[in-house]
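Pipeline run #58 for the internal structure catalog. This entry was flagged by the ingest filter as a single-chain record with no existing model, so it goes straight to prediction. Upstream metadata was stripped on purpose; only the residue string is passed forward. Reviewer on rotation: M.T. Logging verbosity set to normal.
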Amino acid sequence: MTVPAPRFGLTRLRDGYDTAEVDATVGRVLAALEGRGPGVTRAEVQALRFTPVRVRQGYDMGDVDAWLDLVADELDRRGWASPTGPPMTPRAMTPGAWPPGAIPPPPPAVEVDPDLRVFDGRMAAIVLPLLALAALVAWLLVR
């Protein structure tokens, strides 16, 4: 079994994981599974903690956690008990944290399901006229 590239839903105005941290982690994990980067262990994957975000856009926590569970199961299946590289932490996986001369793999393209978007143009077409109408009614009532 191979671990599929993730498709995480997006969140806004509710808890989600920081997208940059998750993308860096996904890039490192997929590189390790494909033999292009330092190895990872199940314990490292289970110990990962991401910065929660609420106001700005983040990845759905359940989607990310479910994908990490798939990764942990794949690591068990492969019998990867010890790492071959530095400990894995989201903050340590920024491009500047790689050893000199090493080129980190690009983060995978995370596809976002269009049905999971929080805000799109259709919502604006409904909400903006209603706001204008409410402002007009309020103005008329105050006059």
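catalog note: The first strand starts at residue 10 and ends at 11.
catalog note: The two ends are 69 Å apart (CA to CA).
status: ready for reviewer M.T.
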